[in-house]
UniProtKB/TrEMBL annotation:
Binding site for Zn(2+) 1: C10, C13, C30, C33
Keywords: DNA-directed RNA polymerase, Metal-binding, Nucleus, Transcription, Zinc, Zinc-finger
Primary site of residence: nucleus
Annotated protein name in UniProt: DNA-directed RNA polymerase subunit
Similarity annotation: Belongs to the archaeal rpoM/eukaryotic RPA12/RPB9/RPC11 RNA polymerase family.
Cell compartment(s), UniProt: Nucleus, Nucleolus
Pfam families: Zn_ribbon_RPB9, Zn_ribbon_TFIIS
One GO term (biological process): termination of RNA polymerase I transcription
Native source species: Penicillium oxalicum (strain 114-2 / CGMCC 5302) (Penicillium decumbens)
Annotated positions binding Zn(2+) 2: C83, C86, C111, C113
Domain named TFIIS-type: residues: 79-118
GO molecular function, one term: zinc ion binding
Listed Gene3D superfamilies: 2.20.25.10
GO CC annotations on file: nuclear DNA-directed RNA polymerase complex; RNA polymerase I complex
Amino acid sequence: MSAIGSLIFCTDCGNLLRESTGDENAILHCTVCGARNKDIIPQTIVSESKPSAFPSALRSKRSAVQTLSAEDRKTEAVTNHLCGKCGRTEMFFTTVQLRSADEGSTVFYRCVCGYKETSNN
């Protein structure tokens, strides 16, 4: 009979035997080949590993995270839209998905004169 940790296998056919009783004098019978195997005291195996042994894709991307300043986050574009305050025909705009995915986005317009307006698509 051979054992790996607390699992006990038949020495003749390799079948997994019933669990150990802990008595060294007990005999375990194989249900496949009928061989008689001596019971052994189960052994506990403890293994440890370092986190670096199992690299994580998320952990490796941690170094790729960048900190953006307010200037970096400016994503306004220019479009032909009439300003309601000064009459200028070009305004800056940005879009944001504020509602659920099956609804349109919200467009924020900003003029150089300081006027702001929003529109739902």
